[in-house]
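Hi everyone,

Forwarding the result from last night's run.
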Amino acid sequence: MTNEEAKFILSAYRPNGSDSGDAAFGEALRMASGDPALGDWFGRSRAHDAAVAQKLRQIAPPSGLREAILAGARVSGRETRSGPGWGWIAGLAAAAMVAIGVFTMRAPVRPQADAADFAGFAINDMVSAKHGSRGEASGALIARLQTEGAKMPSGADIDFDRMRDTGCRTLSFKGRQVLEVCFVRDGSLFHFYMMRGVSSPGGAAAPGPSFVTLAAGAAAVWSDGRFDYAVSSTAGVEAIRRLL
């Protein structure tokens, strides 16, 4: 089996890991676990699939859609004149509603949609990238995060520009700069991401945190209005909850 064949098979793998015991995926999964490049692709693919699935779960069908379709089908059965009947029109209306739902799903909605995307971004980066930050400001934040029982920082504790300019690892998420530092707490490695919020400094905090769990790891996402944050780890959701 080639890597391309393995990718084709793994593209059908459900991101919640429920296919792990399916023999159809066995050889491709073994290849992904032994090939770093294929494993990185698989991690990114699952993170993307999970984010899309979470967005789709947020779409609710319009009230009365099922009844309208059934009513249209009944009218279509009695239609005798030529040309499109009510069933066709009802089907077109249903398709339009789905199209509207997909368009809305792609629009930036905070915090739900961005939370899912940012969590997927954090998990994907955790498993597929090299890490490390330099600079006094980043070192001070890491030392604080590694202190037993320390609370996660708020916007008032973060000098974003100084950390970025003195060597903190910097990434990009949807055109926004993201800083990352790594720290160890209770024997587990965590990756802490922060980016400026879209609201004005000192604005109202978004509800949270939101948690996402994938086979590659887990992440929590929250905001204090000034910054948006994510923490990812392979240690699982409960280990992340203890940080918060």
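The first strand starts at residue 169 and ends at 173.

Cheers,
N.
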